[in-house]
Amino acid sequence: MTGQRIDGIEVSNAVKEILSRAVTQLKSEDLVPCLATVLIGDDPASATYVKNKHNACEKIGIKTKDHKLSSQTTQDELNQIIDNLNQDNDVHGILVQLPLPKHLNEFTTVSRISPLKDVDGLTPQNAGLLAIGKSILKPCTPSGIMEMFYYYKINLEGKNVVLINRSNLVGKPLYHLLLQNNATVTTCHSKTKNLKEICQTADIVITGVGDRTKFTLTSDMIKKDSIVIDVAISSKDGKLVGDADFDDVIQKASFVTPVPGGVGPMTVAMLLKNTVTAASLNKEIVS
User: Fold this and answer.
1) Class of domain 140-265
2) Would you say the CATH fold of 140-265 matches that of 23-114?
3) Enzyme catalytic residues
4) For domain 23-114, is the CATH number 3.40.50.10860?
5) Any idea where the domains of the chain sit in the sequence?
6) Cα gap 245→24, rounded to integer Å
7) What band does 1 get if pLDDT is binned at 50, 70 and 90?
8) In whole angstroms, how far apart are CA 219 and each of 60, 126, 204, 213, 234?
């Protein structure tokens, strides 16, 4: 017996179907949800990510505004653009594509975004609200993972979860979301000792290292019928892969997310959800 493949595309399509109806409702009330993106520099991967987000918005009726800036853009110039978008009543969500060129400060940039338009859920205010269980706009990848748990009716209460990631984008916010669903969470990272033994105690392993030359999650690292959520993405032999050796791990786990087609589509879906939510808040409607 092999485990079940968690289909992120299926779950994301279910989310988008609901959002499409919400967008239609908002438009009937003369409100068109709008996402503004800001891309600095000419990194091909970042450009592709932004293009995919625009395409996803278009498919469910969200309007987009695209700001492509030179890699020489100064912090003051970037701040001014964000200020203008904060003040633009037609814009409901602001996404500054990360990572930024090295001469720009990520914390300064993210902090500049209005918390009500922070569709990445990364501003200090929204991060603080998440930590106390009061957030509305949550980081996209962590909330996408939670959506997959709900869709597949995976109950987190009392489960031992090992989280191999401590980033502001994934690990830290996901830690809070898991706790709020009554899981017991152990956060691991590059300095953790006895990682294999810790993983073997987990009901759920969520991994996001993203470097197969340093780390691969294999079946001997997990217990039987555990659940594996693979957040990572990297390249191996010309193919996109995650941290987990999928074909090996699925022989032992009960559920596994593939790469690609797992967490990735959910990240985009939750960006759309946050944009629609932000537009609803604009009309004092919490969706």
Assistant:
1) alpha beta
2) yes
3) 53, 97, 120
4) yes
5) 23-114, 140-265
6) 41
7) low
8) 39, 37, 13, 17, 19
